[in-house]
């Protein structure tokens, strides 16, 4: 079996960690920021934030042409510091929230899937992270 390629995206957010954590994990907030582009939206989010808990985020094209559920099971949850999960297609994702002098550094490292080019995946995840930054800092 070939090792999965990992991709890392990151951003720096100027907001208190408590606000960042709340917006990252609260389903109502997730539906407001979790999109990669303006022509998509998140219609539903469920989040049982604990080790062994499940999450589901429903993403759909606004024109109704396509949609999918992004789901996983949490493997590691340390409030205000770290979230780890495994997607239903068995890819591992680690997210860290680190305090710096300039704000909170969020780093997401995830195993790439095999359907889309690596650069496209990186751009999509980075776009979602950028939307989160904009939503949280406004």
Automatic annotation (TrEMBL):
Residue span, Activator of Hsp90 ATPase homologue 1/2-like C-terminal domain: 14-136
InterPro entries: ASHA1/2-like_C, START-like_dom_sf
Gene3D superfamilies linked: 3.30.530.20
Top-level division of the source organism's lineage: Bacteria
Pfam hit, one: AHSA1
Protein family according to the UniProt entry: Belongs to the AHA1 family.
Protein name: Polyketide cyclase
